[in-house]
Amino acid sequence: MHTNFANQFLTLLRKEFVIEFRQRYAISGIVLYVVSMVFVVYASSIKVGPKEWNVFFWLIVLFAGINAVVKSFVQESGSRQLYYYQLVEPSVLISAKIVYNTLLLMALTVLAYGAYGMVAGNPVKDPLLFMLVLFLASLGFSIAFTFLSSIAAKASNSATLMAILSFPVILPILLTLLRLSSVSLRLIQDTAYRKDIVNLVAIDVILIALAYILFPFIWRD
Amino acid sequence: MKFFKLLQFLTLILLLVVNLQPLQAQGNRDFMRETGKIYVVTGVILIIFAGIVLYLVRLDKKLTNIEHQLKEGKNE
Amino acid sequence: MWWKSASVILLVYAIIAGLVVPLKPGIDHVTPDSAATGKRFDLEVHGYNTWYTRGKSTDIRAWLQYDSLRAIAGTDIRVLSDTTLQVSFDIPSTLPNEGESAMLNLIVSHPTDGVSLLPSAVEVELDTAHTSSAANWTDHPIENLHVVRDFSYPYRNVIYETIRNTYFHVPMWFALMFMFLTSVIYSIRYLNHPNEADDRRAVAFTETGLLFGLLGLTTGMLWAHYAWGKAWSNDIKQLMTAVALLVYAAYFILRASFDEPEKGARLGAVYNIFAFASLVPLLYIVPRLFASLHPGATGNPAFGSQDLDNTMRLVFYPSIIGFVLLGVWIAQIRFRILRLQQIADDQD
Fold first, then answer.
1. What superfamily does domain C26-125 belong to in CATH?
2. Per-domain residue ranges for chain A?
3. What ipTM was assigned to the predicted interfaces of this complex?
4. pTM across the whole model
5. Would you kindly state where each structural domain of chain C is located, as residue ranges?
6. Do the chains contact at A151 and C267, CB–CB below 8 Å?
7. Residue C40: phi, psi to the nearest 5?
């Protein structure tokens, strides 16, 4: 059973990568999205202080993330979904999607950080903490967005629904992230920021457990 | 039905009066700030009352629709 | 049903007791609000809900207090009216602290009104020209305060009578949480054993929760306008309620997006559970991160640790129970309407 789970999981994960490379337009679309949003911030010629830097950065990551993840279920054809349904356990499928999307979002956030840092400067004072925040952000966004996109995919107006469903749900994570990233930019002094990290991990654990338990109910038809 | 239209209108006016007061009154000592701001408490109670009444009106409309539906079903 | 009558009785009790019980006597403001060291100065105290003329004026005592050890006692106390007092203070020629000025609290102790306090009432500035005063900061410690037991609500500056809103605005939040929690429980039950009744109950409780959320938000905005000066100040609790409303608005949009009711009910239940779980951190974790104007948080001296005393508890808890029961009642009616709707639709 265990080897079965691992095998299915790895196969699905590899499949996600293969598909991503085949449909290179999707990933290039997201990259272009990030670059153009960075450019918009630059071209609006607002003087970007560390505080604005922080807000703009997380807005870019949020919107790029939602666009990158939404396709994981929405853009898969009905026949392929039926094919999965016969072949794999739903829990394996959601785990593979979440892990894949986390990796994708990690690449995306690092790219956004690089591009944004080049254009608007890099005010990060604690790079190690900031990288940890980026990782936690990718993880949290990936869990919430993947799960919600699987719900939204069942409806006809999935793109709109995705935005409506995910923004309120992501807000607690986003607020904690903003706080932590302010700490790493030395915008605020907080010695208890480790508690925020623990909170963020706790939210992620709760959401991943719920996604794991609830996904079979979404997948049933 | 007309009665409920009227009731809805009245509660709406009530809500507006309660909500507009803060917009108009920017002075330090105005009506709402008199006698220890007791009218703020009145406003809060009125809002709660009006909100529950508006919801009741909505439920009433739903029930009326169902009654019509059931009557038509019987006649067929 | 007994609990329906209970909700009405409790709410009537909360409204009557909440409005009738008076506030404790307090100090509204003083004039002038600044003084210089080394001089004698007259302070006019304006009380709120006070009956200064009752009792002997020689029994009234007043202090300007810096901290628990340093205070100066008022002399020559004259009662001008029920709400006005005149007190003279001999300010020592030095400040209790090292700085240029010191903020002093005013404490008035009255035989029938009891003790009232105005924080940061008078600012004393260092005046190096007058160094002859014989008075000392430690000569007159605060003692022999009048203890008066009465049934009244605490007095707070700026808040005044609106402290009564605690019984009407705050229970909205409790009712909201109860409704959403119940709705989540029914959603879990629905996923375990799909049946239309549990789904309808989840919908009814969510809708009632939304009603209470809207009421809590509007009443909060009205109160905030007069207590904090702004109707919307991006306070985390305001933000939180707004997000909760968004989540449940999304819940109804999601349900409406499916042609088959079974699919909408199932995915709605899944979203309900997931969204509620993600809202819990908003309630308990995130408020810790941000300064809040609400009591129980930093940055709100006017409404601090004493914001709920034992007298208030006697009205506050019944009010919460009353509103929760009222919510259950409303939800039950909504549930029955949904069931009738189904019967009517089946007949067509």
1. Immunoglobulins (2.60.40.10)
2. 2-219
3. 0.87
4. 0.84
5. 26-125, 160-347
6. yes
7. -90, 135
